Amino acid sequence: MKKILFALIALVAVLGLSAQDFTIVNGTEPTSLDPHAVEGVPEHRIYVALFEGLTINDPRTNRALPAVAESWSFSKDYKTCTFKIRKGVTWSDGVEITADTVVQSWVRKMDPKNAFQYADLPAMYIEGGMDYLEGKAGPESLKIRAVDKYTFEVKLVGPIPFFADMVSHYAFAIVPMHAIEKYGKDWVKPGKMVSNGPYVLSEWKPQEKVVVVKNDKYWDAKNVALKKITFIANDDINVGYNLYKSGAADWTEAVPLELMDEVKLRKDFHVAPQYGTYYFIYNTTRKPLDDPRVRKALAMAINKDDLVNKVTRGGQIPANSLVPPSTGYTPAKGYDFDPAAARKLLAEAGYPDGKGFPTFTILYNTSSAHKSIAEFVQAQWKVNLGINVSLMNQEWGTYLDTRSQSHNFDIARAGWIGDYLDPSTFLEMFITGGTQNDGLYSNPKYDELLNKARVTSGTERFQYLMDAEKILIDQDMAVLPLYFYVTQNLIDLDKWDGWYPNPLNIHPWKFIRPKK
User: Where are the alpha helices (DSSP H) in 367-435?
Assistant: First the structure.
């Protein structure tokens, strides 16, 4: 590990950091730089540098700010949203972006032949989207159109007043179709990629770094201060922390659990509530995990207070629901720590004192923090239920394939940070057949309630969502919530301006600048 650390520090030193260069320890190697093919936080940070959608996130509130669209408006029933595209906005190669560019991009995202993760996010909310995504109709079914060169219109399945917030997400990314058609899958490589964000791709050395430099053709280039950003690919928390401490990085979330007490004393350590949940996914198709009694027993056998107070120790909040507390929304009740009730349920399922219960595996992506959490849960289930659990770690890309593509797991760790500030961003994941539904959960009543929520508004909509979560958690325990996240960032705010703690931990690069 030390050799890797010294090599990375030397690497960054060679880069010749200046006041306008910024380096982030970005976690794992990105699975792709194609905005339509990604699904993780490391990829999202790079996306925000290279690309820009119709809107972007406000750095303080995460609500929508104008981006490629200079403005937008809703019909009275909030079922139609019309975006006005800025005139003269171009790709980094000078090709203009128009309303038709947006149409073609969204058609590509939802094209069933591409089988992109997250394609169901736009498809569920755009009229005709699910018919197209499921192959029941062609792209003409999509109710999106270029009214004229600079006016883009989308018809929605119901009243969605937060739609402008949603489209800042990379599931709604605008992509350079002309470059994709020219280069195919190679379009994301340096020298071939064109982008429309504040930065362009300069260098991509797999397993090492991604480097982006300022895009002079960006519509708001005059307000972009950083000249270069280096994204270090590293998922070793100790290495990441030491890179930051040494001055070789300007921002990291890499906080070793064993050093948490030390880190919490630092002035440059920033903790804030986050709209996200750390949880385990049950593969609900595998015995004995297909039995809700077993899933509930496993949930009640974990002392989550001990987990956050003795293991994670970063201010996390024990969670019994999937959706974090939200204004106007009452989360599911879930199940508290109750080993006696857990043992009773397990006995009712046919495994008294854990006898006859098969050994199964917890899958997690490589990280000392995830390992510590999995080891804690493993010990809890052994002591409180008498069952044996093995652990398996995989690097990020392999882990995502195992969890999301082959579904070849028993229980897998997962974390979800809201894509936007609404409970539906959590609950929509578990729709039958959804691209994020890695545990293959299915309940027709749950699906029905979410479908109703999409076409209603106000308190009635929230009631549908709350009733759906009661089915997901209280009735079926389809996922196992462990704690609600807090953001944990190391960044010197005496040195950097334009970076603010916020509930989604999204920090658009165009706002970050050296402090004067």
Answer: 368-385, 396-400, 424-427
CB neighbours of 7 closer than 8 A, spacing ≥ 6?
none
Give 243's pLDDT tier (boundaries 50, 70, 90): very high
Measured CA to CA, the distance from residue 226 to residue 12 in angstroms comes to 16
DSSP calls for 381-392: HHHHH---EEEE
Measured distance between the N- and C-terminal CA atoms of the chain, rounded to whole angstroms? 37
Euclidean distance between CA atoms 175 and 196, whole angstroms = 8
**H/E segment holding residue 489:** strand 479-491
Rounded to the nearest 10 degrees, the angle between the axes of helix 444-454 and helix 458-469 is 160
Q: CA 235, 239, 241: angle at the middle one, nearest 5?
A: 100
465 HSE (CA, 13 A, CB side): 27
Return the HEC string of 311-345.
HHCCCCEECCCCCCCECCECCCCCCCCCHHHHHHH
Please determine, for residue 379, whether its predicted confidence score (pLDDT) is greater than 80.
yes
CB 260 within 8 A of CB 234: no
pLDDT in tens, 397-420: 899 999 999 999 999 999 999 999
pTM of the model: 0.88
Percentage with pLDDT > 70 across the chain: 96
Number of continuous H segments (helices) and E segments (strands) in the chain: 17, 19
Please tell me the distance from the alpha carbon of residue 170 to that of residue 50, in angstroms, as a whole number.
Answer: 11
Q: 10 Å Cβ neighbour count for 14?
A: 8
Continuous H helices in 17-168: 41-50, 99-110, 120-125, 129-133, 163-166
Q: Check residue 299 and give its pLDDT.
A: 98
Question: What is the C-alpha to C-alpha distance for residues 455 and 158, in angstroms, rounded to an integer?
Answer: 4
Q: How far apart are CA 216 and CA 8, in angstroms?
A: 29
CB 161 within 8 A of CB 152: no
The pLDDT tens digits of the residues spanning 108-166 come to 999 999 999 899 999 999 999 999 999 999 999 999 999 999 999 999 999 999 999 99
